[in-house]
């Protein structure tokens, strides 16, 4: 059942239910897509009918924004919880990695999602707990995210220098992001199993 929030029809699911629904969509016949509108997207959908139709035509419409949750409550059609797109995607990644019995698939997916969303810390926290449990969680989390400190300091300085050297182009910066992401992936191999 979907809740109408200002013209956008949201699926009223928890994160776990959304991941289950995503797994069923992926296994089912045909094509389906998932959208995760936040308040800005809902506002745009109110203004443009074609945009609203694209959102409402999705296989899953998940509320990615606390403003959507608050609006739903105020409008008398409460949603169970916020379902961030990155959390939904990492849940599906865990499922598909488990199906393939391939930790490298999960780690490479985590690397790619980290590059796209800038969410390495969020993903690694989820992945470390699910893959390795709680026994060495603090140590594993620290090792996994060790590179974020120098990256936060050196990254912007290096990126600015590379952009200036490349005459304003972003190709070298993108290459640096890939290299630093690969370094993060390598760091994951130092995680201790329980």
Topology:
Layout: E1 2-5, E2 8-11, H1 15-27, E3 34-35, H2 39-47, H3 49-56, E4 60-61, H4 66-74, H5 85-99, H6 103-117, H7 120-132, H8 137-144, H9 148-165, H10 171-187
Parallel strand pairs: 3-4
Antiparallel strand pairs: 1-2
Helix pairs in contact: 1-5, 2-3, 5-6, 5-7, 6-7, 6-10, 7-8, 9-10
Explain the overall architecture.
With 194 residues, the chain is mainly alpha-helical. Helices cover 64% and strands 6% of the residues. It is built from 10 helices and 4 strands. Strands 1-2 form a two-stranded antiparallel ribbon. A two-stranded parallel sheet has the order 3-4. A hairpin with a 2-residue loop joins strand 1 and strand 2 (8-11). It is globular.
Any descriptors?
single chain; 194 residues; mainly alpha; two-stranded antiparallel sheet; two-stranded parallel ribbon; 10 helices; 4 strands; globular
What class would the helix/strand composition place it in? Answer: mainly alpha
The residue fraction in helices comes out at 55-70%
Q: Report Rg.
A: 19 Å
Shape: globular
**Beta-strand proportion:** 5-15%
Count of separate DSSP helical elements: 10
Going across the biggest sheet, name each strand in turn: 1-2
How many strands appear in the DSSP assignment? 4
Give the N-terminus to C-terminus distance in angstroms.
41 Å
Q: Main sheet?
A: 2 strands, antiparallel
Oligomeric composition of the shown chains: single chain
Helix and strand string, N-terminal first?
EEHEHHEHHHHHHH
Mean of residue pLDDT values: 78
Give start-end ranges of low-pLDDT stretches: none
């Amino acid at each position: 059942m979907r809740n109408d929030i200002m013209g956008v029809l949201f699926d009223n699911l928890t994160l776990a239910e959304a991941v289950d629904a995503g797994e069923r969509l992926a296994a089912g016949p045909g094509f389906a897509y998932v959208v995760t509108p936040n308040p800005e997207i809902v506002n745009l959908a109110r203004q443009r009918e074609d945009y609203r139709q694209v959102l409402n035509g999705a296989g899953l419409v998940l509320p990615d924004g606390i403003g959507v949750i608050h609006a739903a409550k105020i409008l008398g059609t409460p949603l169970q919880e916020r379902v961030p797109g990155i959390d939904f995607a990492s849940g599906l990644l865990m499922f598909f990695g488990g199906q393939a019995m391939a930790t490298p698939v999960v780690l490479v997916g985590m690397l790619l999602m980290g590059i796209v969303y800038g969410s390495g810390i969020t993903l690694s926290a989820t992945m470390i707990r699910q893959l390795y449990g709680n026994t060495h969680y603090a140590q594993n989390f620290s090792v996994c995210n060790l590179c974020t400190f120098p990256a936060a300091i050196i990254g912007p300085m290096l990126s600015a220098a590379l952009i200036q050297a490349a005459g304003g182009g972003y190709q070298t910066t993108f290459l640096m992001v890939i290299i630093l992401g690969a370094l993060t992936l390598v760091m994951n191999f130092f995680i201790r199993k329980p």
